[in-house]
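Troubleshooting log. The previous structure file for this entry was overwritten by mistake, so regenerating from the original sequence record. Sequence copied from the archived sheet and checked twice against the printout by T.R.
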Amino acid sequence: MKQEEIIALMKREVVPAIGCTEPMCVALCVAYATETLGRRPEQITVRLSANILKNAMGVGIPGTGMVGLPIAIALGALIGKSEYQLQVLHDCTPQAVAEGKELMAKGAIRIELEKKACDNLYVDVLCQAEGHSAQAVIAHEHTRLVYLCLDDKVITDERGCLQDGGETGTADKLSLREVFDFAMQTPLELLEFINEARTLNEKAAQEALKGNYGHELGKTLSRPLGKGIMGDSIFSHILSTTSCACDARMAGAMIPVMSNSGSGNQGIAATLPVVVFAQENHNTEEELTRALVLSHLTAIYIKQSLGRLSALCGCVVASTGSSCGITYLMGGNYEQVVYSVKNMIANLAGMVCDGAKPSCALKVSSGVSTAVLIAMLAIQNKYVTNVEGLIEDDVDRCILNLTRVGAKGMEETDRTVLDIMTHKAPAGEV
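Regenerated output below.
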């Protein structure tokens, strides 16, 4: 790929988002339909792919103090602005939340599973009022509007390009060698945009220390108990800072984070371990910028073949990126970055995604702790060989092996997880 194409790819995939991206994607689709309808909906029917449903059930919705899809849908209709994209609920107020609760109480919101969705990422919204209806469909990417219709008038229809598993037909192709060379050789001034990820995600981590978010993993690690067990080290600081940002985001803090490939947690995990290590290792600003590009672009590269939503936990992908970035900051070369990727795949392949939720901070912490350990091995030229598991000599084939397991091999796992999540016994029952 050409330099300008890679930059465009990164700017498309590394974007700010408020809250978990799946409910925000649904709220965005509702906002599109509502704006097209031109009036407040009286009835909203939302049909979702299983992966969207799985990742939107258990997360806090920013500014509401509530969990789950109904309030996100209601607010998407009441105050959502499509121009804000994944910050669609930026203008949320207590009054809007109260009105959203009223809309929910009227039974105006209906949520259904779309069993025949053309893509793992699929949202279909129908808004109705005063004898009129508007339909909007987002698919394949969290902000990609593929269909828009008012009554019988079709405004946009790009659904045909999603018939083959959601691929656009113009999928960007990379190799790890290209990723590394781009990060190392591109003029620094062209890479400065990535530093916004540092700014936003550090603020999210700081926000977690001010409040009580989620399971407070990051806060716990930064307290005397955590320091007593984990130590007061670069390693423990990486874990606490990264977990803090995840705690705040998944619990519904009204603060943007920089996402990666449609996931805020992936953006956090690809950013903060690299930032903390660089700061405490006294790397230069240029080294940090290049390390962040290497981390984020590696994650994007892996996600190209894995898909945006899968049964494989996204922290595996993002942590692989951050391990590459940390390896470089340790003084590593391309071959040692390759060792990082191989070691990460050998270790974390198969970690199950059981939906977006506050406890994602635990998985993020597991991923980034492994990323640091792997970087330490890689810099010493220690790596898993091609006689072991998913690993081959060719690092790009290793990545394809990982994504094959995550995208194809774990399909039944994904269905089983969703079935368990949607058929839990009421609280207190066994």
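Strands lie at 16-18, 43-48, 60-61, 66-67, 109-113, 122-129, 132-139, 145-150, 153-157, 256-258. Archived copy saved in two places this time.
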